[in-house]
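Sanity check. The docking grid for calcium ion depends on where the pocket ends up, so I'm generating a full predicted complex first rather than guessing from homology. Inputs follow.
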Amino acid sequence: MATLESRPPRRSRAWMVVVVVLLLAVMAGAFALQGDEDPTSAPTTNRLPVTSAASFDPQGDNGTEHEEQVLNALDQNPDTAWRSEKYGDPEAMAGKDGVGLILSLDGVHDIGQIDVRTPDAGWSGQVYVTDGDAPDDLAGWGEPLASVQGADAGLTRLDLTDARGSQVLVWFTRTADSGEVAVSEITVRAP
Ligand SMILES: [Ca+2]
Ligand SMILES: [Ca+2]
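Predicted complex below; grid placement will be based on this.
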């Protein structure tokens, strides 16, 4: 009578080897990611998803600022930029309090930082956060949660504390010295 031989343990050992190799691969990947992390460069892991964006010019005649260029600030391409309209006086901005960009997230998030990349120096700005529909006027946004005066060209990081919402307004209260604001990228980051 034939009896079932007990299976050789090779099969289960083979599976264990596969599992161990997979674990090692995952750990190696994790270490590689850690190794890439440079504290002086912008982190890439906490970027919050922006689902839509709009220009904001509540005191302007047309209500918008080069709306057709807005996605240039979100395409992760440093060579493309959104630009405001051109103002003769960077400080006065034709009598406006400012113009801005509204970024809509995919839902309510804790927000830790806004990174703004610009080619031009000298602009000033503020960050507002709310949820629900984006307000039509500045007063509807409440109080600014971060601000910068006379920013340098390149990366400006605005740190927010206890910010939570789904709508972010980056509000420019002074243009760069050129008379316009140019934004090559805006990134919204979790804390
Ligand atoms: Ca306008
Ligand atoms: Ca861009």
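Relevant for the grid: The pocket of calcium ion (ligand 1) is lined by residues 57, 60, 62, 64-65, 85 (CB under 6 Å).
Also worth noting: Residues 31-39 have pLDDT under 50 and may be disordered.
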